[in-house]
Design goal:
- By secondary structure, the chain is an all-alpha fold.
- It has a domain at 28-77.
- It is built from two helices and no strands.
- The protein has helices at residues 2-21, 29-58.
- The protein is elongated and about 65 Å long.
């Protein structure tokens, strides 16, 4: 950890000395204000996007789509999908071929 802090201090020292050593016209106060606003909004947008990333990951929005309701936790003990469900509505009725036993036709 001390090595990382030392590298950060060296990088900041080098950046400050290079900033001071550069020749050119002085930056007006409006330039510093614009630079500060740009840094602030860049960090704010980055933090907001990371927050959305964690929110969507923790609430299941990043999970692949599963054929509901057959993969929900309440149906894990249900009979196989191709087995007739007498107590459930028949969602596959238009896809069945009569007399073939093929449920997916």
């Amino acid at each position: 950890m001390a090595a990382l802090v030392g590298l950060l201090a060296a990088a900041l020292w080098y950046a400050a000395s290079a900033w001071i050593a550069l020749a050119g016209p002085p930056m007006p106060a409006v330039g510093y204000l614009a630079m500060g606003a740009g840094i602030f909004f860049s960090v704010t947008i980055g933090c907001g996007l990371m927050a959305l990333l964690f929110y969507s990951s923790r609430h299941g929005y990043d999970e692949p789509y599963r054929d509901a309701p057959y993969h929900d936790a309440q149906f894990h003990d249900a009979p196989h999908r191709d087995a007739p469900h007498h107590d459930a509505p028949d969602h596959d009725a238009p896809h069945r071929r009569p007399g073939t036993g093929d449920d997916r036709g």
